[in-house]
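Researcher: Please translate sequence to structure tokens.
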Amino acid sequence: MLKIEDLVVAYGGIEALKGISFEVQEGKIVTLVGANGAGKSTTLRTIMGLIKPVKGSITYRNKDLLKEKTQNMAKAGITLVPEGRRVFSNLTVLENLKLGAFCRSDEKGIKTDFEWIYSLFPILKERSWQLAGTLSGGEQQMLAVGRALLSRPKLLMMDEPSLGLAPLIVKEIFRIIQEIHKQGVTILLIEQNANAALHIADIAYVLETGRITLHGTGNDLLSNEEVKKAYLGHKAAK
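Model: Translation complete:
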């Protein structure tokens, strides 16, 4: 579905991505895990066309994504839930959600999707007329996900959805991610919370200082001693 090959991205001559290659297969949850500054967010921003790479290719369903404009990504079926949620604080919950469907005209389908989103996040229905800026961090994250889903994406990309949230809310967010996946949405998940991400991932990649150093199934990496030591808070077995 999505294929990245030999991708190099630089900021002022310093390479943030040093020739990474990976693939997101349709119907899978794929995660990129790594420390802060590893290049995870840069990867998503490059896929979305917000950053131009020095070299490499990005193809989506055999289409050259580097030739697409960012504003056309939603129409192509690609949506990003950005780091920090980025809701419109001075708009209501309902207005934020409606913005997610800006490129759609199928009123019946939009209504059906609203019902689905409200079933995933009942609090959003209860607070539909509340200003988004007055919501808690967890509620804003739910709103950001709901807004993205209203574009009816084929590929949903999520940048640090657990960042800054309480453990109970993190658990709920990851449960929702799995529920979304069950509805046929392919997910590319960027996370510092390696433990939570690897538990739900079909395929996982470890990104370290701009390079992919490990990859395998989520379960494979959960049992990998290097990953345990670096990301899961466990000491490697002697």
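Researcher: Any highlights?
Model: The chain is about 35% helix and 25% strand.
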